[in-house]
Write a structure and sequence with these properties.
The chain is of the alpha/beta class. The protein contains eight helices and seven strands, in the order H-H-E-E-H-E-H-E-H-E-H-E-H-E-H.
Length: about 220
């Protein structure tokens, strides 16, 4: 976290410092591959997704401030919604191609920010990775921002799906090498290209996490985020 981040975003920066002190004690927190994180410029951060606490651990591992695309339903809970907005989360409607969320995401990337976006689109209780949403591929092709694969290991033990309480389980975050895709400069990408890019991202996540990914034929329809 840079001094510039501390000045322009003290709440986020102070929280980051606290996680560096507390998480290694509570969760035996480990981070691998931090050298793969570009220190500045537009960046799409693409983590695996096992638990509601995943954004917290991504933020604790990422050495720069980030914005988070999160499901719209969570913002309907008054206190939770306010906390999420304070820590740079913004809503996306997952069942459709949410143009408003995509426009805001493109605005963030155009201004050199880091955007956290879960390619699987939802928490995944299974060992095998889910089929990706295509919104992440759309943003990568439309903005030229590199995509950073991130494997989260152990967060399902901190807050398993179906439970509301935290457990003190060990967590590791692994950053892979950033993927770069060709900038289309405003051209509308063909669906086949979107699928190809999304599958490449998932294969990188599979290699990083050690979890299998079997791409299936993705049929027509909306390009959900």
């Amino acid at each position: 976290m840079t001094m510039r981040d501390f000045i322009r975003d003290p709440l986020y920066s102070i929280t980051y410092v606290l996680t560096q002190l507390i998480f290694p004690v509570l969760f035996r927190f480990k981070v691998a591959g931090r050298e793969n994180v570009p220190p500045n410029g537009a960046l799409i951060v693409a983590p695996t997704h096992r638990s509601y606490v995943d954004p917290i651990f991504v933020g604790a591992a990422l050495p720069r401030r980030a914005f988070y695309m999160a499901k719209a339903e969570a913002f309907e809970v008054p206190l939770l919604g306010a906390i999420m907005r304070a820590y740079h989360a913004f809503p996306v409607r997952r069942e459709i191609f949410d143009r408003r969320a995509i426009r805001f995401a493109m605005h963030l990337l155009a201004h050199g920010e880091a955007l956290v976006m879960f390619p699987e689109g939802t928490r995944n209780p299974h060992h095998e990775l889910l089929q990706p949403k295509l919104g992440i591929a759309y943003l990568a092709l439309q903005t030229g921002a590199p995509v950073l694969p991130v494997a989260l290991m152990g967060t399902e033990g901190v807050m398993p799906i179906g439970e509301a309480r935290l457990r003190l389980a060990p967590v590791e975050v692994r950053f892979g090498e950033a993927l770069q895709f060709e900038l289309l400069k405003g051209e509308k990408p063909e669906r086949e290209l979107l699928v190809s890019v999304a599958v490449e991202i998932m294969r990188a996540l599979s290699n990083l996490s050690g979890r299998p990914f079997k791409p299936t034929r993705m049929r027509g329809g909306e390009i959900n985020a």
